[in-house]
Design brief:
The complex is a heterodimer of chains A (74) and B (210). Chain A has helices at 2-18, 52-63, 68-73. Chain A is mostly helical. Chain B has one domain (4-192): Alpha-Beta Plaits. The termini of chain B are far apart.
Chain lengths: 74, 210
């Protein structure tokens, strides 16, 4: 009878202590996924006919017009 | 292609607001919404500095992180855009943005917020390129035309640069190496002489009283 009571006490103690346990409350942030409509590429049009390289070249050339040293001297 | 970025040279900006006007006109931005604005620090005090500010198209954009409906996306060119059909106008992005870029049109008599509007880097939005629908919601798509943001292209002093970050860095580097830094740039030393070499005394004018 005694071992039974002792076992029951141990189980009750363990169950009681389990209530004192603490779980981590740090929220792990997860970046959401875009839920909107898909967007086209800037080179997918008549002007560039889907040619990404052509578009990049045009943009880089255009960018140099903001460089007044090259614009004036070159 | 590297990331698209803006850079504003505070030594050159003269607070003309040409960028602001060009942006509003190009995209027909409604009254009360300013996708771009010029901020001046120490206005009226010698040494004041002005800077043109809009969405900086952050690499780790806080607006994207806080949006409850996940309506933001980043294009392959590094431009941060959003879907207005999904936006609920909650204003979280406005509080998260360190630049105050998100704008909200007043959509009603009781201060009701409309859908968020912000600088698109002249890249439109998630509609067919250069379509009527895209223009109505997001403004003109200049990138699809092989052009860069009008605010930067129209800048008279070329204080505001916009485009491929690597190219901008090269332009800015060349500029700084050419002009020097601090008081070497222009203005004070040119007008008043350097501290160790005072400006020459004005030549006596012929026929002057003194």
């Amino acid at each position: 009878m005694k071992p039974l009571i002792a076992t029951a006490c141990v189980i009750a103690l363990a169950a009681g202590l389990a209530g004192c346990g603490e779980k981590s409350q740090v929220v792990v942030y997860k970046q959401g996924q875009y839920q909107g409509k898909a967007d086209g590429k800037p080179w997918d049009n008549e002007a560039f006919s889907g040619d990404k390289g052509n578009w990049e070249t045009a943009i880089k050339a255009r960018n140099q017009s903001q460089n007044e040293y090259r614009r004036i001297n070159g | 292609m590297a990331r698209m970025k803006f850079i504003c040279d505070a030594e050159r900006c003269i607070e003309c607001n040409g960028c602001v006007t060009a942006c509003k006109n190009e995209h027909e931005v409604p009254w009360g919404v300013n996708r771009r604005r010029v901020v001046t620090i120490n206005d009226g005090v010698p040494g004041e500095r002005s800077m043109s500010v809009a969405c900086m198209h952050c690499s780790d954009a806080p607006c994207m992180a806080v949006c409850p409906v996940d309506c933001f996306y980043r294009t392959d060119e590094g431009v941060v855009l959003h879907d207005k059909d999904l936006c609920i106008g909650c204003g979280y992005c406005f509080y998260a943005c360190p630049f105050g870029a998100p704008q909200f049109p007043q959509a009603g008599a009781f201060g009701l917020r409309g859908k968020m509007d912000k600088c698109t880097f002249c890249a439109g939005g998630p509609e067919a390129n250069s379509s009527e629908e895209e223009f109505r919601k997001y403004g003109r798509n200049r990138l699809a035309e092989g052009k860069l943001p009008l605010c930067a292209e129209v800048c008279s002093t070329k204080a505001l640069l916009g485009g491929d970050a690597d190219v901008l860095a090269d332009i800015y580097r060349q500029r700084v190496l050419t002009r020097g830094k601090g008081a070497e740039i222009w203005g004070w030393s040119t007008a008043y002489g350097k501290p160790d070499a005072p400006a020459a005394a004005p030549a006596p004018s012929a026929g002057g009283k003194s």
